[in-house]
Amino acid sequence: MASAVMNMTTAALDWVSVAFDAPLARAVVFGVHIDGHLVVEVLLIAVILFQLTRKSYKPPKKPLTEKEIDDLCEEWVPEPLHPSISEDMKAEPPTLESAAGPHTIIDGKEVVNFASANYLGLIGNEKIIDSCVSSLEKYGVGSCGPRGFYGTIDVHLDCEERIAKFMGTPDSILYSYGISTIFSVIPAFCKKGDIIVADEGVHWGVQNGLHLSRSTIVYFKHNDMKSLENTLEKLTRGNKQAEKIRRYIVVEAVYQNSGQIAPLDEIIQLKEKYHFRVILDESHSFGVLGNSGRGLAEYYGVPVEKIDIITAGMGNALATDGGFCTGSVRVVDHQRLSSSGYVFSASLPPYLASAAISAVNYLEGNPSVLTSLRSNIALLCKGEFCDKLHNAFAGLSDVPGLTIASHPLSPIVFLKLKKSTGSSKGDLELLNNIADRMLKEDSVFIVSTKRSVLDKCRLPVGIRLFVSAGHSESDIQKVSDSLRRVAATTLAEHL
Amino acid sequence: MTVLLPIPPLVPIPPIAVPGEVRRMVRLTYLTALTTLLGYVVFFVFGFLRDLFRELLNWSKSDDLRGYAPICPPFEDFYTRRIYHRIQDCFARPIASAPDAWIDVVERYSNDNNKTLHRTSTASRCLNLGSYNYLGFAAGDEYCTPRVIESLKKYAPTACSARADAGTTRLHVELEDLIARFVGKPAAITFGMGYVTNSSIIPVLVGEGGLIISDSFNHNSIVSGARASGATVHVFRHNSPSHLEEVLREQIVKGRQPGTHRPWRKILVIVEGIYSMEGEFCKLPEIVAICKKYKAYIYLDEAHSIGAVGKSGRGVCELLGVDPADIDIMMGTFTKSFGSCGGYIAASEEIIRYLKHACPAHLYATSMSPAAVQQVISAIKVVLGEDGSNRGAKKLAQIREGSNYFRSELKKMGFVVLGDNDSPVMAIMLYNLAKLPAFSRACLRQNVAVVTVGYPATPVLLARARICISASHTREDLIKGLKVISEVGGLVGAKCLPAEPEKAKKMD
After folding, report:
1. Which ipTM score applies to this complex?
2. What is the C-alpha to C-alpha distance for residues B379 and B169, in angstroms, rounded to an integer?
3. Which of A126, A477, B332, B409 is most deeply packed, by most CB within 10 A?
């Protein structure tokens, strides 16, 4: 049996090999012998060539017809321009019925006002109002044109000279609105490719300027000099290219979002070590810090030439509107053609420029107003022992649930919650509650932090008290008593 | 050791091309374009040579700023140093009076070839054809000024606080109601500066994932707001509704990203009422129709047209017969027609409520000065006739007749004049850069103050002189202005078109 199978297999194999090796007698083409395997190979090549010549299959791409485009456009539904209106969006701020001085009238009642940044008490000052009135009668209200096209009035030039003289800088430039100052200055000097190191707690105006400049922005921890040094070190170490691009540090003198004061002496040391330039926003420190109100540089004893660019809004201590920027002649001159908020906008109304000149004259002539401001701030924060009535007036140092988070010299006294609710929305609800109750029950007007949806700052929210040199001791006592009482009851369940 | 020759980096060449329909509108011939370009080339070559010499001379001087990159690299302000400084005396002329029909222009002198200018104490009284004083409220007004002074004494120059904090007074609330009523919308919100209005509102309305389509000649504040928003920005050809439709169709089909076709969140089309460099109106009815068809939102910036055009001064909507309800957001400023400062947005109640909650300018920026608010309130009352007189209607009629008269006379003289009928802004084309200072200085010598604009406010080849007519210009003022402009225009060769024969120019 096995041998029969073996025989059959051998026979089959023999047949195959014979058939394979047998010369194809008929296949002698043009005198060339053709072997069997050549036929297979030729067939294979023919198949490959055939496939290569076929067009590759792509799904046909015809352009959309007009009807199809119409249909797509019909189908598309846009989002509404505004999100749905929630209850907290409906809150309205109180309406004032008189000037926003230390005492103002809301809803027919007189209230103590700690919500206006009227640091030197210049709201209602007779001399300033007189200069405004004479300016109004001479120049009208508006200036009706940008600075380049007959909008430059001689009071603008006088104001610029006055401010430069006061600050001790060669020149200054006037802007028509406080918040537009910083977001026009930064893009004028920082372009794509430059490096900016900014504090994470800067306010929206600065953030907008940084965004518009399209430079590389690196944030450092709020008011933390160690973090700043590390950032500067990281950016410049081993970086040969860094020499050729412009580098800036952007800080605020008194931070609106927290009341902290930037340590200028350390910043100048770092700036000189790493070759950066400093842009300083002095909106809340101009007219407040320093022995004569010249700002942060005077306070720290740093010569003002070391700060490259100083900007400030005049809507705080100087009790007028607008802003200015000061620095070297090159810095100021460059802005006259390349700062968009200066070139493309109408100039400051002349009466506000006269008010600024009068305010600076007043500040230079009455430095005692700074001492009253400082004593008011100290009184509010720390309190003092009042001998006559044997009452301990503790100020704000022991308000239940709230703690002072600002620098002792800052005119913005910033109180934040000792224990946060976990979200800034919840915190704001509590704080707004406190502010509303204080206004209704004790006729004391204070405000909490406002945050816009566009604001990138993540610092904790809190209550802001703007101390003025025009506040009396009884005002300060009233606000601290009221705050203590209302905070105790409102935050009772929260603590 | 090789010594490298200090070669200043190349100057950025500004865009020269002018689109076809703009060329036709401004009558730019090839000869004019070539000669203008040649003029620029000469300036650039000289400027380049001067920079080269400066580099060579400063080569040996010590550098204080070792380790620092220069704060203004030489090529960035090449235009400022080499071209603008030569003609600096034609710009930023200080005045010593209110910007009324006649102003006192302060004379300046220079010791260093126009690099720095110093004021003198003399001023010359000139006819003012440059300020935006459309209704004549710039100087004191018998109704407005006493009320403004009263408000100033009551409320002080400022409230030192943002609107959301302690900056809202009765006046602000009254103004918002009044402007909403004036414009024809349910509600309004006001800000202290027009520029900030645009740059802080647009980011709140449209964010990432949205599309902004803006006219190519839009103002810098709109461009800045669009850039700050993070949305994608496309531009459509100036005042061309057909191109707008094309862009809309293409973008809706394409979607946010080319591959995925994710739909846009929302589309905002931004146009202006009057384009201030050309003086022409926007083709509003067609654009509104297109936006309605494609469900895009429309944002109208009426900075120059509110209060100045329209039968009762309500702006471009009234003039062109568009219902204000069809426009989603109406923006305007108080600087031009009402002689004050600030801007407003008028829209539906919900949008305004949302803006009050979210807009950074409302939450952080100092509120508008109460005296300026009172000026606007009084000015609007005069325009509406609510002050008990018909001065408002008279002013509107005067500005309309004055601007139409001025424009037709200029055209008869053979100037190329841009600007639509009824628009108080018109532009006389000069094209050539050298004609700008010639025109400006010659007019000033004859006591007429005009505004001349060149690059970068206008395209490179299209320099012009811009005239703004005011309701406080009398017929005699306009005739004097025309006489001077005709003489000076003839001298500089700006009369490019054939003038009409003398007998047709007879003035009544």
Report:
1. 0.91
2. 19
3. B332
